[in-house]
Amino acid sequence: MRNTKTIGYLLGAFSIIVWGVTFVSTKALLTDFSALEILLFRFVAAYVALWIIRPKVEKIPFKENIIFMLAGLSGVVVYQFAENTAISYTSCSNVSIIVSLCPMLTAVIAQIFLKEKHITPWFVIGFVIAITGVAMVTLNGYGTLEFNPKGDFLAFFAAVCWGFYSLCVSVINRHKYDSICSTRRIFFYALIFMIPWVLFGTKASPDSPSYFTFDADTNISRFSSLANIFNTLFLGVVASALCFCAWNKACNIIGTVRISAGIYLIPVVTILFAHIFLGENLSLMGGVGAVLVIAGLFLSGRKKKNNNN
User: Fold this and answer.
1) What is the pLDDT of residues 217-273, one digit of tens each?
2) Which of 35, 104, 133, 298 is 20 to 30 A away from residue 288, measured at CA?
3) Looking at the whole model, is its pTM more than 0.70?
4) Between 266-277 and 121-139, two packed helices, what is the crossing angle to 10 degrees?
5) What SS3 state is found at 255?
6) Structural contact between residues 107 and 248, judged by C-beta atoms closer than 8 angstroms
7) Is the separation of the CB atoms in 250 and 259 below 8 Å?
8) Residue among 167, 173, 176, 71 at smallest CA distance from 111
């Protein structure tokens, strides 16, 4: 049991670390692609990769496809697009802090719909400490927070969507389906939901996050860049195919709400990565914030001995 839990935490840590550095690839791709184009190409690559990794069809009852549809819609299409679009209307600092509400929202949604009691005093204390640390890490001694209703609402909406995605994953994991096949099915429905969005995007302005083009010359030109190919494959194969599988498996082993608390660490990973590899400054404020995030993470997972995991 201890070895299994260790594997679960390692899978969760792998996802968090990778998701913490994806901003570099996304930022690079946004110079040539819209947010919608990145979303589509990323998950097409992920879907194909998962077929290569596990060329197996897992049959499930027809009615149970509904939960996979909801997972694809909430956790892939809406969450990813809303988060990326929010950055167009508000600061990255605001988005990082607001999206860090995911663990608390996940706990609230699980308590309402699954009757799971996760919101303990320790969880709330840990949340307050961790979200304070996230704010300090994100601002890093230099930024300021300003209220931008449109972007901030989109960021909060993205966090709510992730909470519902986590709910769907909890339900899916109860059926003990193959993790890779389940993740691939989620991506399949996500891609189906993207089709009308893509068609709508062909009529959008080139400056719009929803813009999409089928122009062959434009796409050949963009994908002639090795950097664009690398970043797309990294986001698709590693950050989506592998990380979503790892995350869903970690949720199954550790518990969705408990492992979701690790999301607090994503801004910490991001700022450390930027400091080490991009030479960005790490202030004392950012360092103290990182310590608070880790402390809050441990406190939020503390429970009485007579409580269930």
Assistant:
1) 999 999 999 999 999 999 999 999 999 999 999 999 999 888 888 888 887 887 777
2) 104
3) yes
4) 30
5) coil
6) no
7) yes
8) 167
